[in-house]
């Protein structure tokens, strides 16, 4: 059963997140995990000339890529966050768009060598709708990669999530959790040619790991151009 996303209410929640999470002094960084200076970086995207980050939040990963010559574009639901990241990172060359990811992808006409999400919109949008839309926007040889916490055992599918504690205004959203093999099956069904899913271990025992999932488009897919290699996951 699909859950009833209320995008206006979710926008309010993420605007509140933006007010608390954005730090003007944070530097560009590309980090898939929730731990500082831990785990792999942007090399897991291969060597893309163009990227789209879905649910780009604080914009630090896009600024990191833009500073290295990548054509970097991000979409995020929160107008508050988009204003902050445009002011902070606009000079890097990264482009930021305010929009709901499914609506944005339905209207988008560009293609990208990589689409990615770091605890971003791939965690908060229905993968049954999201994955085929991402697939359509990827160039031959392209990759879709996303990270988020692994599912809690037994708790699969859309999960309701209140913002902050359990007092105050009732703001909630839904996030999606599956076992790695199910994420891979969802990608295959959406038209990805090969997939992988890996756990990046937390820096300390018994702490929360990070799940990293990728789907690849074959370089010889219709309309292919040469190149766009992507490396296997080495974690
Ligand atoms: C937990 S934050 C993490 C984002 C980012 N990795 C960062 O470092 O800030 C999730 C982001 O996804 C965005 N988001 C959630 N649902 C979305 C949707 N349906 N469409 C677009 N963005 C969405 C939120 O606005 C938020 O900025």
Plain-language structure description:
With 235 residues, the protein is of the alpha/beta class. It has a single domain (7-216), classed as Rossmann fold (3-Layer(aba) Sandwich), CATH 3.40.50.150. It has helices at 7-21, 60-66, 79-89, 101-107, 121-124, 127-137, 180-189; strands at 50-54, 71-76, 95-98, 112-118, 138-148, 157-162, 172-177, 194-200, 210-216. The strands form two sheets. It has a seven-stranded mixed sheet with strand order 3-2-1-4-5-9-8, with helices on both faces. A two-stranded antiparallel sheet has the order 6-7. β1, α2 and β2 form a beta-alpha-beta unit. α4 packs parallel to α6. The longest helix has 15 residues, at 7-21. The N and C termini lie far apart (35 Å). Bound molecules: S-adenosylmethionine. S-adenosylmethionine binds at residues 14, 55, 57-58, 60, 75-78, 81, 100-101, 118-121, 124-125.
Give keywords.
single chain, 235 residues, alpha/beta, Rossmann fold, 7-stranded mixed beta sheet, two-stranded antiparallel ribbon, 9 strands, 28% helix, globular, binds S-adenosylmethionine
Which strand-content bin applies to the residues? 25-35%
Question: Looking at this structure, what is the CATH superfamily?
Answer: Vaccinia Virus protein VP39
Low-confidence stretches: 224-235
Helix-strand category = alpha/beta
Q: CATH topology, anyone?
A: Rossmann fold
Tell me the series of helices and strands, N- to C-terminal: HEHEHEHEHHEEEHEE
| Biggest sheet: strand arrangement | 3-2-1-4-5-9-8
CATH top level assignment: Alpha Beta
The geometry reads as: globular
């Amino acid at each position: 059963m699909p859950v009833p996303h209320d995008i206006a209410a979710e926008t309010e929640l993420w605007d509140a997140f933006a007010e608390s999470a954005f730090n003007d002094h944070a530097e560009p960084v590309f980090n898939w995990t929730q731990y500082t200076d831990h785990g792999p970086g942007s090399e897991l995207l291969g060597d893309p000339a163009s990227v789209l980050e879905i649910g780009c939040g604080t914009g630090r990963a896009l600024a990191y890529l833009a500073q290295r010559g990548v054509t970097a574009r991000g979409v995020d639901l929160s107008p508050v966050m988009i204003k902050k990241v445009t002011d902070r990172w606009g000079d890097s060359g990264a482009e930021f768009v305010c929009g709901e990811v499914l609506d944005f992808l339905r209207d988008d006409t560009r293609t990208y060598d990589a689409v990615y999400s770091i605890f971003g919109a791939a965690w908060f949008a229905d993968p049954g709708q999201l994955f085929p839309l991402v697939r359509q926007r990827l160039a031959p040889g392209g990759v879709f990669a996303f990270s988020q916490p692994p599912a809690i055992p037994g708790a699969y599918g859309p999960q309701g999530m209140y913002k902050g504690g359990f007092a105050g205004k009732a703001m909630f959203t839904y996030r999606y959790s599956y076992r790695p093999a199910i994420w891979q099956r969802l990608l295959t069904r959406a038209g990805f040619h090969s997939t992988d899913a890996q756990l990046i271990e937390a820096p300390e025992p018994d702490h929360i790991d990070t799940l990293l999932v990728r789907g690849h488009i074959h370089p010889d897919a219709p309309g292919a151009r040469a190149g766009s290699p992507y490396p296997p996951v080495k974690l």
